[in-house]
Every structure is written in structure tokens, then in C-alpha cells.
Write a structure and sequence with these properties.
135 residues, mainly alpha, 2 domains, 74% helix, elongated
């Protein structure tokens, strides 16, 4: 009887050890995937994101070079024609540009972008990076 109990204890310890190993391996893989996603997110170029008709690109570049007021006007005029993720990227650019003159406006636009984005968006890491400044 004591041999049976000892064998069950050994089997139980081996099973718990195996489950702990599987859990550790899962956590390690998730951490590696997170690092890869963060590295890929750092390489995102906002000008290459989908969502803006190519005809609007020249006017956008002009507005961006003219500053926050021109970018605000451009967003009001053409914002409905632009889709995420490009629209979110442009709005975050606007937040950064207008933050010194009108912090309340920057926070309002940032809150709208944050409410729209999901964690699978290519703009998500940039939004998370700016989150501390606008909340």
C-alpha cells in the first residue's frame, strides 16, 4: 500500500512539474511575440498606411507642412473621406501639432482616436506611446 501511495505521489509531482513547464513555455512565447510586435510597430510609417485616397495625398502634405491650423482645416474638409488606420495616424499628428496651442483640443481628438482603435491596429503602439501625454 505504501508503494502505491509513493508511486501516486511521484506521478502527481511529475504531472504538476510538466504542467508548470508548459505554462512557463507559453508565457515565454507570449513575451517573445510581444517583443516582435513592438519591434514591427516601431517600423510603421504613417505615410504608407491604407485608408486615404491617393488624390488627397498632395493636399495633405501641404497642410501638414503649414502647421496645426492647416491640418485642422484639412481634417474638417477631407476627414470623412479618409479611413482608419491612416485617419488615426493623421489625427495623432494633429494632436502633437496642436498640443502647445490648445491642449484641450489635443486631448479631445486623442480621446476620439483612442476610442476608435483596437489593439490589432498598426497605429496602436503610437497611440500607447502618446497616451501618457494626453490623458
Amino acid at each position: 500500500m505504501t508503494k502505491l501511495i509513493a508511486a501516486l505521489i511521484i506521478i502527481g509531482v511529475l504531472y504538476v512539474g510538466w504542467e508548470l513547464f508548459l505554462y512557463w513555455d507559453k508565457v515565454k512565447n507570449e513575451q517573445e511575440e510581444d517583443k516582435q510586435k513592438q519591434a514591427a510597430a516601431l517600423n510603421v510609417n504613417g505615410d504608407l498606411l491604407l485608408g486615404m485616397p491617393y488624390k488627397l495625398e498632395p493636399s495633405f502634405q501641404t497642410a501638414r507642412s503649414q502647421g496645426a491650423a492647416a491640418l485642422r482645416t484639412w481634417l474638417k474638409t477631407y476627414g470623412a473621406k479618409v479611413e482608419d488606420p491612416r485617419k488615426a495616424w493623421i489625427e495623432l499628428d494633429y494632436c502633437v501639432a496642436v498640443a502647445r496651442q490648445d491642449p484641450a483640443e489635443a486631448k479631445r481628438v486623442f480621446a476620439q482616436v483612442k476610442a476608435r482603435l483596437t489593439s490589432s491596429s498598426p497605429v496602436w503602439p503610437r497611440m500607447k506611446q502618446l497616451e501618457k501625454a494626453y490623458e
